[in-house]
Amino acid sequence: MTMELNPFSYEFHEDPYPTYHWLRDNEPVYHNRELDFWALTRYRDVFDASLDWSTYSSAQGITVERIDPKTLENTPMMIMMDPPRHDRLRTLVNRVFTPRRINDLEDFIRSTAKQLLEPLAANGGGDFVTELSALLPMEVIFTLLGVPDPDRRQLRGWMDLSLDRDRDSPKIPDRAIEAMIYLGVYWQDFIAEMRQHPNDGLIAALTTAEVDGERLTTGEIIGFCSLLGAAGNETVTKLLANACVLFARNTDQWRLVRNDPSALPAAVEEVLRYSSPSQYQGRMTTREVTLHDTTIPADSRVLLVTGSANRDEREFPDPDRFDVQRPSHVSLGFGHGIHFCIGAHLARLESRVALEEFGARFPEYTVDDSQCVRVHMSNVHGFASVPFTGGS
Question: Is the pLDDT of residue 223 over 80?
Fold first, then answer.
């Protein structure tokens, strides 16, 4: 018996964990010949590879799908770079993407969550995704970036569409490519506007940020907008919806965090571990690598499957049990090493606040699993719709 890892399989999106378990035990260094990629699925292998950027390079993209090198050159993203170029860009961005700037958003996040929850509470439920978890991060990240209100839903629509994938196909569909083009044009025009008429958003701040007299190019700022806009929206949307479903399935765990909000930070980490929104990070090998008696050639696409690593029984006792009181651990839900998610602090803040406010209005609620709808993206797992009912 053998099991196939196909990131484009809709059935795989429903529940990848049996496949991961089999691969960890039987083919920890897996090779998909048809799609031409390798995959590491054990925690220690993924952890070590995440730190070894000189062997596992990000410079040729981070997904199974191959990206035109010209795209990476014209609008470079930190997540698709190796040092020293990565370090230069991250240093510039860190100058303006500060913990203080993030922490100052908490009141706005809470007021936005309350506003979104009002009609849900009045109606005794609704769709957790379309009415809460998709809207909250959209408002937060675009407020942080300084994007005007009238543009936000269109931008979010293009971002979602740019990640959409067809069943069993590694080809980026035309609708996704078209959405990427629209996004690039929008960001280019908006950055030009911010250079002329800056507001108090992050994009305007990036146009003047300097390290040793050097500023970001327009292409680099577009890359950052694309990265933070998409990641800031998608990660929190999926994280919160996954939490909603998991807590509905594990009511004892929901009672724990509902009765003790101080347990929520650890609960968010457990959701990240148990049901990671980002399932893998793609790399290219710069040299031949041998692991578990299997050799990966140089110039091979390798997936660091964090979704599997976070369920590895070699690292986590009883890994398929959702336990918000699990002892502190190094989860790989936000990546690891030089590419640790720059927006992790913001995502954790949004998730904690949203679940606090949701719990205050819905101490008891139910989710009908048969009505939940999954998204179909190659490396992002989560829900497009989670209908729920409940109330105080």
Answer: yes
CATH code of 150's domain: 1.10.630.10
Q: What is the 3-state secondary structure (H, E, C) of 142-208?
A: HHHHCCCHHHHHHHHHHHHHHHCCCCCCCCCCHHHHHHHHHHHHHHHHHHHHHHHCCCCCHHHHHCC
User: What is the helix (H) or strand (E) element at residue 340, kind and residue range?
Assistant: none
Residues 10-32, mean pLDDT to the nearest whole number = 95
Residue 367 belongs to some domain of the structure: no
The 3-state DSSP class for residue 261 equals helix
pLDDT exceeds 80 at position 139? yes
Report how many domains make up the chain: 1
**Best CA proximity match to 49, nearest among 57, 60, 59:** 57
Summarize pLDDT for 348-373 with one digit per residue, the tens. Answer: 999 999 999 999 999 999 999 999 99
**Cβ 375 vs Cβ 234: under 8 Å:** no
Maximum CA pair distance of the chain?
A: 62
pLDDT at 71 over 80: no
Residues 152 and 138 sit within 8 Å (Cβ to Cβ): yes
CB distance 281 to 334 below 8 Å:
no
